[in-house]
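Example A, followed by Example B.
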Amino acid sequence: MFRCIPSFLRNWRRLLLTLSVLLISGALFGCSATSTRIAEVSSFDQSDWAQSSGLFDPETKQPVRSASWTNFLLPGKKETRYLPAIVDGRGALQVHAESAASMLRLKVHVPAADLGLARFSWKVTDLIAAADMGDRDLDDAPVRVVLAFDGDRGRFSVKNAMLSELTHALTGEPMPYAVMMYVWSKHRPVGTVISSPRTDRIRKLVVETGPAHLGQWLAFERDIPRDFEQVFGEAPGTLIGMGVMTDTDNTHSIVHAAYGPLTVQLRPTNGFALDKRH
């Protein structure tokens, strides 16, 4: 009777862990609050961090208003606390995670032709000693910047197609075609691509490594289409979600960190230019 069920769905422990990954993916698709326990964070809209984060129009030099930021809570997981604050004189998002995992995310819709730069910054006080983002049981990170993309799900493997259908059943939305994360690794070299141990449709690009810059603000400008092609070997589709995530649930650790504003700069109508002025 169960011969047609893949082995990765027969193991209940692995299934529960996989469901957590699916729900994280679904969070970036903007699933309903009732089905996925999204907690609305109304105060974020008025905070310095939220006012400076989201989509950015380089021609008007103004943010593009869209949906509200929401904190996506995973069933059975403690909530990572994302609090707007002034850190070192700047509007920031102060983060505390104690054996916790949740994601702050924003639903967007940016066609691939309009994708430009991702700009973000973070400050980390300590790395997670036991973490390994390549190990499904130790996959925690002090900071992650997360981008979710639409695409042709007809190209999914059998496993990913089933995971997408399961996500749709649980959340009302299919699994994103691809999720790309910018991460700080404990030991892997900058430029390393780490596939999620549970689905290769979630991949992480290491942009900082090791303890040398702990306690310092680090700022990044990343070319989204170029990075996506490096990570997935193809051009990106429509950007459908963006967010930040700090998680320590697998290693049962405690992490304090801070994020500066997160923006996605739209490509100017007269062509894209890398603007490094701040």
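Example B, a separate protein, is given below in the same form.
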Amino acid sequence: MCVRAFFLSGSLLVGTAHAQDWYLSWGYNRSSYQPSDVHIWGQGPAGDFDVTFEGAEATDMPERFQAKVYLNPTRFTIPQFDVRVARRLGDRTWLSIGWDHMKYKLSDQWLVASGSVAAGDLAQTASTLTLPDPASTEVSLDEALVWWGKGFNYEHSDGLNFVRLGLEQTARLVETARFPGSWIDAFATVSAGLAVCSTDFTWAGDRTKNQQHVSGYGASALLGLRFHAGPRLFLQVTAQSGGIRLPWVRLQGPDIEAGADQTIGFSERAFALGYRFGRSG
């Protein structure tokens, strides 16, 4: 078997025999998040709140595999998906637009809280404080421990969407005469774009499900492998890391003075199927 192996190199050129001009890919992701300080403010059942939680931990929200979801054309966008459309700019360079549909949910946990909240709202959960009467009395929090659990929820469940523009560089890694027309590429992408959140928020049992809203911006770097089965079809696996700044999160609809502010560091693992199309040769 004759194998040609190449590594990332500024002089590497992709063969013109595989020169489709566009590609489209679709796949699914899992994400992890670094602890984040979350500043939230708004109106609770017993009064206003303005609180910062330090080092809040969060998870993604994967959808278990069900044919009625993943194979249903009306529901396959419910899981955490990635979609890309890319245009070739040069032999090794692509420009892509994409949508990474991640999901983010604060875990049930003890949180260090600072700020102010109505006593009646705080009474809906456990804390290290002795609460005054009446319920509307404002309580000052100074690094107090508060339980974030039943009756309280903060999640970007529909979702934490990273809508991004990316610049991609590819390099041929392996091509073998035993499987003509098939090869393996490595690729790297840097991206920047907007964060569009749909936030499901509950405070002291009072729930608001917010519509999609431009909530911030982000940037990321990605590495991947792409396994080509002929000149058009491919399977790819990727690992991506980045940061998303969210200064404009909507918590209680567009008409209430409420919101959230946080910065999220994330890592994402994904796979996707793709199809290349356009001019060949």
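On Example B: The mean pLDDT is 90.
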